[in-house]
Amino acid sequence: MTMATQAPQTGAHIISELGTMSRDNVVFTSGLKFVAGEVFAIVSGKAVKLAPTASDGSQTPAGVTYAAVDATGGDTTAAATTRLTEVIGEAITWPAAITTAQKTTAIAALKAINILVR
Question: What is the mean pLDDT of residues 95-99?
């Protein structure tokens, strides 16, 4: 029997938020795709993939995608969770190669912007 894997659903990672106060419209960098609940960074004013070993700003979490974002056709603006939110830790998407120490650092950085990983 073939098993199907369901992609993360819009907003399913959120425990609580202060409505639209918790979100901003964010420009996602051309050429990238994000799933709902994916932690991202901001470099030069645009969302990029979190890269914990980088030193260009992409190592610092700036928020969590609210829904899937497909920017493969060009820069794309979409709503993202950027503050005042509790999220389900198991429902958050992290980079595949992130270590436990890097994840702990990223969770602390999210907490600093009032996104609490539970």
Answer: 96
